[in-house]
Structure formats: structure tokens, C-alpha cells
Design goal:
alpha/beta, eight-stranded mixed β-sheet, two-stranded antiparallel ribbon, 10 strands, 41% helix
């Protein structure tokens, strides 16, 4: 049989191919190392590969621009070695010893771990915003240097520039076959389909790996990762077009990344700087992940100079945010509680549960017209233990609760605790030129428990249609510009949404479970038939099935008797 011909490269990989192939290969190299420790290795190396790719990409662009301007070839190096030519375009300066070409050439050396540590040091030294952020863990005795070298080889084969978003129309070989995954652009692939920057591509890879590691770590993964559809729902409802965006427990920075994407999608890439992000994270390793995540996405955020406990030491004491997005730890029992804290304007939270501490901290950080979206455990909507009922009542009576959304189960792989979304607003009036609907003294309830699609046996996601329906309902209720542009009009829908007055909420003892307010969905009775006719019809159908069953049984018996055994 003649040898199979190698398929011609079909162009650069799609993002799905790149992400999945990188993950499978990297996971094979993990060996006995636990996911939490391996996460720091892989994401640190991906970041280093990114800054190197972005640096080389920018370097070539400078070369082309200089030559196009008619500058002598002898002077090109002067421009290539000017750090301002890089920082001005959001690209980190990468010293020669930290460039991937140099690292890859020495990947099989015995000192690869020491080489990587030195590279991390060199990048941090030349780029003050990264000081103390990058991992220096590659040369410890517990690290298998051979596997580390293989991981460097794997990432070295992947180009984080020039990838397609989707596969081309023509057939292509499976990912990884005959080198097609890392092929150069094919002649038939349109130029616009292969011009994605290193930042765009690696940003997606980084987010994908964060999600994968969160799944691998189980419950601990929830400390640094919020499911993408939940983050997107928060952002779509709040619409943070411009202003200060804050997250008091920012994890790996996913809320900020999605907020920046929202601005870019609705206002264009040139308007991404319309938002300024501020965050705080108590876990050192997670804080480092967030700093790298923001850097990869070109977001200049203030996550403070180090990690810290938000309750014990608020790193942004004077901040008053326009938008707050947060997914605090559910039902946290071990937290830095001070009884006379000025943030507890609506009641002192119990020592054994920080849910209402988080909510009051968030409200205290809002500007005069600020709004917030917070992920909470379902118990926060109805609990009356340890004064929580009184705090919830005080929040309602202060007219701070704009919307409550009951989420479907299984959105969070890392916890089985049912969740909901609280939306706060300091001002539910028209807000002047914004011409919003008058909603003072009202709260919107949305029951989304039956929404979402199962992507496997244990995990559900909210689809784009789900997100559009929920966010569109809120925008119609609030009368936002986006709702007016789409001509959306709010109306109560039994079983899904209801706008309740504060007086109605009082009659329910300030319990905020949406199911209490939206009621049951209306049944479609347009095709209903009288019950007697329905029973007669179904009985006739049943007898018909009995007769067919008897006929088939008789036929089977006849055939069995004919068998010559």
C-alpha cells in the first residue's frame, strides 16, 4: 500500500483547534503535579510566550514603518531598540534573554528552569507594572526539568499570531495532523481572516486555560473563575460603557476582561479606555493570575500593589465606582469582621456568614448614580438568621435593590449551591439626560431557573438567546437607550418576570425569591379539548396499541414454532 500523502497546510488553526490542542498536550505533561501547582507553571509560560510574540510582532511592524518612511537601513536599529516604540502601543519590552527564540534554543539544556526564572526577572525589571507578578518557580527541586523542557517546546510550536476565528470553507486536515495546526497561512485564506494579533489570540487561550484549570481544581477553582455566561450576563445587564469599574474580590480578573470586551463590541476598539478598572484580591497566586490576565488583554487596571483582604484592608478606600461586578465566596464563615465598621449602614452582618458584608461593602463603594451586579447564594434572598432578614429589609426600604434574578442550577461546576444575582442601583429615577424609566419604589424580579442548555452531564450554560432575553427584559424595564433603540417595551410575563412595588415586597416579609412574585407561567389552552372527549380519544388509542401488541405476540410465537432446533 503506498504511503499516505501529507495534506497540504490549510492555513493557520482555528481558535478552537489551537486552544484544545494546546490544553491536551499541556495536560499530558502534567504528570503527578496537582492542577493548582501546574496552573502557575503553564499560565506563567503562556504569558512569557505572549509578551515575546507581541514584542516580535511589534518589532517587525516598526521595521516596516521605518523603511516605508524612507529612513536609511543603517538607522533602523535605533528605532527597534527604543522602548517607547513598544510601550506606546501597549507592548512590553522584552530583553533578549527573555525572548522565546533564545529560550527555545536552550529548552533541552539542564538549566531550563534557571533560564526561565531569569527570563521572568528580566521582564519584570524592564516593566514596572509587572513587578512581583510573574512566577519564579521553574528551578525548584520538585520540578521535572525534562517535562518543563517539553512544555517549552510545545508552546514554542504554537504561534499566537495570525489565527482564524473559524475554519475556512474548504476541507482541512484534523488538528495536529501533519503539522497543520501550526501551518502558515494558505494562499486561499483571506488576509482579513489571519490578521489577529498575539494579544487577541493569547487572551482567548489564557481564558480557556483558566476555565480548564478551574474545572480540574473543582471547588477551589471557584476562587479564581466565574463561568463565562454568568460574567457576560452581569455585564450585559449593567452595560458599563464608561466610568470606573470595580470588583472587590476580582479572582483572575474575568469581570474586567468581559467589561472591556463589551465596550469594544458596542463602541469599538478605540473606546476600550472609556472604562477604568479597580480590583482587589486576597489570594496571592490568584492576584498574580489577574495581573497577567489584564496585561494580556491590554487593560491598565489598578489591582493595588499587592494582594489583601478587602474587609480587613480596603485597598481603594476613596473609590466610588460607577459599576461594580462581583462574585464573592458564598457563605464565607471566616472573615475579618469589625462590629463598628462604617460600611454596615444597614445592619451588622453575622460573624458566621459574610454574604451581607459583601453586599454592604459593595453599596458603600458605589457612586451617587452607580449600579452593581453581585452573584450570591440563593439563601441570601430569604434567610432570616442572625439578623440577615433585617439587613435585607433595610436594603429594600432604602430602595437600593433594582433587580433579582434566580439562576438555573448547574451553572457553577465548582459548587452545587444554587445561585442568584442581586442588582443594586443608587438611583432608580430617570437620571436626567439618560431618560430612564421612573422605577423608584419598584424592584424587578426575573425567574431564569428553567433557562440554559446542558453542555454535558453536569454543566449548564446560558446561551446568547438566554442572555439577550434576560438583559433585554431588564433594559426594557429600566428604559435604557439600548432598549429604546430596539423598541423594547416592558410588561410582566407570568412565570418569568414581574415588577413589584416595595409595598408588595413588605407583604412577603422582604423575601426576595423571584418565584414568589412572577407566579406560574400561563398554560396554552388554545388547543384544549373537553376532558370527556380527551379520555375517550386516549382510551381508543390505548386499545389500538393493545391489539397491535397481541398481533405481534402471535406472529412471534408462530415464527418460533417454525424454528428447526
Amino acid at each position: 500500500m503506498p504511503p499516505r500523502k501529507k495534506s497540504a497546510p490549510a492555513g493557520p488553526p482555528t481558535m478552537a483547534e489551537l486552544r484544545e490542542t494546546l490544553w491536551k498536550a499541556a495536560d499530558k505533561l502534567r504528570g503527578s503535579m496537582d492542577a493548582a501547582q501546574y496552573k502557575d507553571f503553564v499560565l506563567g509560560l503562556i504569558f512569557l510566550k505572549y509578551v515575546s510574540d507581541a514584542f516580535v510582532e511589534r518589532r517587525e511592524q516598526i521595521r516596516q514603518d521605518v523603511l516605508a518612511d524612507g529612513i536609511a537601513l543603517s538607522r533602523v536599529e535605533d528605532f527597534l531598540d527604543d522602548p517607547d516604540e513598544y510601550s506606546g502601543h501597549g507592548v512590553f519590552w522584552v530583553p533578549e534573554q527573555a525572548r522565546w527564540e533564545f529560550i527555545a534554543a536552550n529548552a533541552k539544556s539542564a538549566g531550563i528552569g534557571e533560564l526561565l526564572n531569569a527570563a521572568m526577572d528580566a521582564v519584570m525589571k524592564k516593566n514596572p507594572p509587572l513587578t512581583g507578578v510573574l512566577p519564579r518557580i521553574f528551578n525548584s527541586e520538585s520540578v521535572d526539568q525534562r517535562r518543563l523542557g517539553e512544555l517549552v517546546d510545545l508552546l514554542g510550536d504554537a504561534r499566537f499570531t495570525g489565527h482564524r476565528t473559524t475554519a475556512p470553507p474548504s476541507a482541512s486536515p484534523p488538528p495536529g495532523e501533519d503539522g497543520a495546526l501550526f501551518a502558515e497561512p494558505a494562499p486561499g485564506v483571506p488576509a482579513e481572516a489571519v490578521t489577529r494579533s498575539a494579544r487577541d489570540v493569547l487572551g482567548e487561550v489564557y481564558e480557556y486555560f483558566l476555565e480548564k484549570f478551574a474545572r480540574a481544581e473543582g471547588k477551589r477553582g471557584g476562587e479564581f473563575y466565574t463561568p463565562a455566561s454568568v460574567v457576560k450576563l452581569l455585564v450585559e445587564v449593567l452595560e458599563p460603557y464608561s466610568g470606573r469599574v470595580y470588583d472587590p474580590c476580582c479572582g483572575s480578573g474575568g469581570m474586567f476582561v468581559q467589561a472591556e470586551k463589551f465596550v469594544a463590541e458596542h463602541r469599538g476598539l478605540t473606546r476600550k479606555d472609556d472604562i477604568a478598572v479597580y480590583g482587589q484580591e486576597s489570594n496571592e497566586r490568584t492576584w498574580r493570575l489577574a495581573k497577567m490576565n489584564l496585561a494580556i488583554h491590554g487593560i491598565t487596571g489598578d489591582l493595588s500593589s499587592r494582594w489583601d483582604d478587602t474587609f480587613h484592608n480596603d485597598r481603594h478606600p476613596d473609590l466610588r465606582a460607577d459599576f461594580i461586578l462581583a462574585n464573592p465566596p458564598f457563605n464565607m464563615s471566616d472573615w475579618a469582621r469589625t462590629v463598628d465598621d462604617q460600611r454596615w449602614r444597614y445592619g451588622t452582618p453575622p460573624a458566621g456568614n459574610a454574604n451581607f458584608a459583601w453586599m454592604q461593602h459593595i453599596i458603600a463603594k458605589l457612586g451617587s448614580r452607580g449600579s452593581a451586579g453581585v452573584v450570591m447564594a440563593n439563601g441570601s434572598m430569604s434567610s432570616k438568621q442572625s439578623g440577615e432578614g433585617e439587613i435585607r429589609a433595610a436594603l429594600v426600604e432604602a430602595d437600593l435593590v433594582a433587580c433579582m434574578i434566580a439562576l438555573p442550577p448547574q451553572l457553577f461546576r465548582t459548587t452545587q449551591i444554587p445561585a442568584c444575582l442581586w442588582f443594586f442601583a443608587k438611583d432608580k429615577g430617570p437620571m436626567g439626560a439618560r431618560r430612564l424609566a421612573e422605577r423608584r419604589g419598584e424592584t424587578l424580579f426575573i425567574d431564569a431557573r428553567n433557562m440554559g442548555t446542558m453542555i454535558d452531564r453536569t454543566e449548564r450554560v446560558l446561551t446568547d438567546d438566554d442572555l439577550a432575553k434576560i438583559a433585554g427584559t431588564y433594559h426594557a424595564w429600566r428604559g435604557t437607550q439600548s432598549a429604546r433603540e430596539k423598541n423594547l417595551k416592558y410588561e410582566n410575563v407570568p412565570g418569568f418576570c414581574y415588577s413589584a412595588t416595595t409595598e408588595e415586597i413588605r407583604t412577603h416579609d422582604h423575601v426576595l425569591t423571584p418565584g414568589r412574585y412572577v407566579g406560574a407561567a400561563e398554560l396554552d389552552t388554545s388547543n384544549d379539548e373537553p376532558i370527556a372527549d380527551k379520555i375517550a380519544r386516549l382510551t381508543k388509542e390505548l386499545f389500538t396499541h393493545f391489539e397491535e401488541s397481541a398481533r405481534l405476540e402471535k406472529e412471534v410465537r408462530t415464527q418460533l414454532e417454525r424454528l428447526d432446533v
